[in-house]
Design brief:
Elements: H1 2-24, E1 44-45, E2 58-60, E3 66-68, E4 78-82, H2 90-103, E5 114-118, H3 126-140, E6 149-152, H4 156-165, E7 168-169, E8 171-173, E9 178-180, E10 184-188, E11 194-199, H5 205-216, H6 223-229, E12 234-235, E13 240-241, H7 244-280
Parallel strand pairs: 4-5, 5-6
Antiparallel strand pairs: 1-7, 2-3, 4-10, 8-9, 10-11, 12-13
Helix pairs in contact: 1-7, 2-3
C-alpha cells in the first residue's frame, strides 16, 4: 500500500505540472489573433513540398546582368531566401542567420550548393543587391565562394511568379513604406523543387546540412520531418503558437504514467509472490 500511495502521489504531481505548463502557454495557442495590424493580415509562408520553383522567371543579378532563375538549377541544391534589401528589420536578421548557419558547414557555396536571395521589392536595385552580397561575403569569410552567392532583383511579375510558387505572401504598408512578411528559407533540389523549409530566424546547422544532402539527392522531406524539427514555434504571421508543444507535453505525461502503472503492476506481482513464498516456508520450531 505504501508503494501504491507513493506512485499515486508522483502521478498527481506530474499531472499538476503538466496542467501548470499548459496554463503557462498563452491563451492564443492554436487561435488566430484578431488584433493583427492590417499590414500582416495577408502575410503568410506555407511552402508546398515538391512544388516547382519556376526556372523561367527573369531577374537581374547584383552586377546588373539579366538572369533566369533556372541558371542556378541543374547540378547543385539551392538555398532560396526571400528578403528585400532595404528592409529595416527582419530581413537583416534572416540574412545574418543564413550566413551564420552556412558558415558552420564544411560545404561551400558555388561548389556544393548555391545561395539565391530574391528581393520581393520591385524597387530594389542591383546596387543595393551588390551591397548585401559584399556584407554576406565579409561575414562568411571564404573569398573563393563568391560565385555561389546570388542577390537578385526583378519586376513585380517575376517576383509574383516565384513567391506564389513558394506560397510566400506579403503586404506593403504605404504609411511606413515597408513590407510585412514572414521569415524562413527553402532548400531546393538541383532541378528547383522544394525539398525542405525552415521557418524563423534560426536554422540549426546540423539540420540544414542534412537537408542539403537530401536535396542534392533529389529527396523531398515530409511533414513529419518538419514536425520533428520544429516541435514548438511562434508564428508571427498568424500571431499564434504551434499547438505541437501541447501534444508533446501530453504524450510525455501519458508515457510516464504508463511506465508508472507498469512498474506498479510488476511490483505488486513480486510482492504477492514474496508473500506466497513466505506462507509456504516452515515456521520456527516446526517438526
Amino acid at each position: 500500500m505504501k508503494l501504491f500511495r507513493t506512485i499515486t502521489g508522483i502521478a498527481l504531481l506530474l499531472l499538476t505540472a503538466v496542467a501548470a505548463s499548459a496554463q503557462m502557454i498563452p491563451d492564443n495557442v492554436g487561435q488566430s489573433s484578431k488584433a493583427l495590424p492590417p499590414a500582416l493580415v495577408n502575410v503568410g509562408f506555407d511552402p508546398r513540398l515538391n512544388a516547382q520553383i519556376p526556372a523561367d522567371a527573369s531577374f537581374v543579378d547584383e552586377m546588373g546582368a539579366p538572369v533566369r532563375l533556372g541558371q542556378y538549377f541543374g547540378s547543385r541544391p539551392v538555398v532560396l531566401v526571400f528578403a528585400y534589401y532595404t528592409c529595416p528589420m527582419l530581413c537583416g536578421q534572416v540574412e545574418q542567420a543564413v550566413v551564420g548557419t552556412l558558415k558552420m558547414l564544411s560545404f561551400n557555396p558555388g561548389a556544393d550548393y548555391d545561395v539565391v536571395f530574391v528581393s520581393f521589392d520591385p524597387s530594389d536595385t542591383p546596387e543595393a543587391a551588390l551591397k548585401k552580397k559584399h556584407e554576406a561575403l565579409r561575414r562568411f569569410a571564404r573569398p573563393t565562394t563568391d560565385g555561389g552567392w546570388h542577390f537578385l532583383t526583378g519586376t513585380r511579375e517575376s517576383i509574383d511568379a516565384v513567391t506564389k510558387a513558394a506560397n510566400f505572401s506579403y503586404s506593403y504598408d504605404e504609411k511606413s513604406k515597408t513590407y510585412g512578411h514572414a521569415s524562413g528559407i527553402l532548400l531546393l533540389t538541383p532541378d528547383g523543387r522544394i525539398s525542405r523549409y525552415f521557418f524563423g530566424v534560426e536554422y540549426p546547422a546540423s539540420n540544414v546540412r542534412l537537408g542539403l544532402v537530401d536535396a542534392s539527392a533529389g529527396k523531398i522531406g515530409t511533414p513529419v520531418d518538419h514536425l520533428l524539427l520544429f516541435c514548438y514555434q511562434y508564428d508571427p504571421t498568424r500571431a499564434r503558437y504551434s499547438a505541437t508543444i501541447l501534444t508533446v507535453i501530453r504524450m510525455g505525461a501519458v508515457v510516464t504514467l504508463a511506465c508508472m502503472v507498469l512498474g506498479f503492476v510488476i511490483f505488486r506481482r513480486r510482492e504477492r509472490q514474496n508473500v506466497h513464498s513466505d506462507q509456504h516456508l516452515p515456521t520456527e520450531g516446526a517438526h
